[in-house]
Amino acid sequence: MRSGEVVDDRFEVEEHAASGATARVYRARDLRSGAKVALKLLQTAATPALGALAREALALATLAIPGVARYVAHGATAGGRLYLATEWLEGETLSERLDRAPLTIAEGLTLAARVAETLAAVHRLGFVHCDVKPGNLLLEGGDLERARLIDFGAARFSADEEEFPTLGEIRGTPQYMAPEQARGEPQIDARADVFALGSVLFECLTGRAAFAGGDPLSVLMKVLLEEPPRLRELRGDVPAGLDRLVARMLSKAREARPRDGGAVAAALASEALDRRPGGGPPPWSQPSSSHPPPRAREITASERRVMCLILAREDEDEADAEATLSETADEGRSRAIREIVERHRGRIELLEARWLLVTLSGPSAPADLAAQAASCALSLRELLGGARLSLVTGRAEVAARLPVGAVIDRLVQLVQGSRDPHRPAAIRIDDMTAGLLGARFGATRDASGCWLHGAREEVLGAPPSLLGRPTPYVGRERELGLVEAEIDACLRGRAPGAVLVTGAAGAGKSRLGYELVRALRARGEPLEVWIGQADPMSAGSAFGLLQRALRCGLDPARRRPLPRSDELRLAWEGFIDAECAARPVLLVLDDLHWADPPTVALVDAALRRLRGRPFAVLALARPGVREIFPGLWGPHLRREVCLPPLAPAGGERL
Q: How is domain 6-87 classified at the CATH fold level?
């Protein structure tokens, strides 16, 4: 609009003041009162923008309180565009103030107290602002004590159940959203504003955002997963009580936060009594007995944690653009998604009801967790069909928090190229995940990155490779010779026995097994090799490992399910006796530490009763397997070979 134009026969435009995504703000003069007003004029007729202006008009007309810009009028121009007029405020936003420098402790407390008192009044009247941020706090005359809360376009009236948006509709700014807002939950209350104010106060005092990222998606994920540092870790002069209060305000669980703006204002008033950096906790800083805040999970000096993140989203060209991963009409699929994630011991989050985020973490070995995450991603791909999936792995080093932010940033980068037209079913993975998966999964690398294609049935029977490229076998020649000699003695000497190879995760146990099988087969002599690999996801499942070995080794026409009766042992012994009568049999059991006791017991029975038969067992396991299976195979365990760390010369060759 041009200077001098009159809107609705009342407001004369003086000059353009600011522009947003859907509206422009002009300084205008109210012809009735002569006062200056801020005239917000919509530039679109889109339903969300119309709804936002209507909500803001309702809120401002109701909230006649000092900390909020005074409502003047709302209506439509002659051309049909909606407008909202509020009192004109001279000053700068808190965002502009923070661009120059962070606030002092006293300034931060002054601002927080003013905003908390304003929010207390807003909450008492039943409203939730839903977008508290530095850009929506205007410092009248540049004075922190005269901060005004502006822009109620995202506000909600908590008493009106019909006003709540549908699941997945997000209002607010990602950097200051509470976790429940990031998930798109329909029920949002005053504690969302408390979280946002905590984020604002954190930024005021530290000069950095509590949750930052290169794009909205990464910020939303960090809001859900990342714990920001405590204030006193970044600024030593912050009073201990204030540090505890902000930590409570930023709690992921809304039950652990102060209940509303009034509770925060009361807490800050108590804080004013003790501003010493090392001051003891004032009364308000103690958590209530009914809602104790969750303890922050720290990484101690003796711990190393791994985190895997899976992100999935359906392509809009393959699914209805209005469909979401959480629609009640698709309740069966939502239940199936939850079952897959729970089976793989993961945690599921839904962002905007479209992005499915799965986190897996714990004290597991990195390779185990990566395999667990890959299995989960492949299962989700099977269920979701055309969804785009990406998987990344991150590791926390000694005495540090989980680097969730760094892992999330890598995940979002992968999402940008997570669909390859030449590999529509492939899952995009990062370099760390690809390196950890090893031979259990089929993965390739090209100019665009690393791709996961699927799991391999017979790991020890496949050529060892990393990202589709063959890898050399170095540094284990002595151990391979020892194992081969013992297996030879069992098969050629017709003296059933077992060899156990133990080593830490990644020490090369499976590779040694592959090299042994390859060497034995290269002789050209009759030999039946059955290979079974235990799975951490089904650890302990009765006869699971043995069934996998038989399914892998036998011709499909000869496969039969193991009988489930008291005659199982006799049937097994008769079966393996007949097989050994025809040719020597080598049973390879990989990852025995995840095996099931019934399998171990049946193998023990075969070793004891197959006298004079060419039968040998090669078991590969991690240290501690004897504690899981005490007295493992007794005198029939001919040798245990321990794999030490690779010697420096072997490492150089590798």
A: Phosphorylase Kinase; domain 1 (3.30.200)
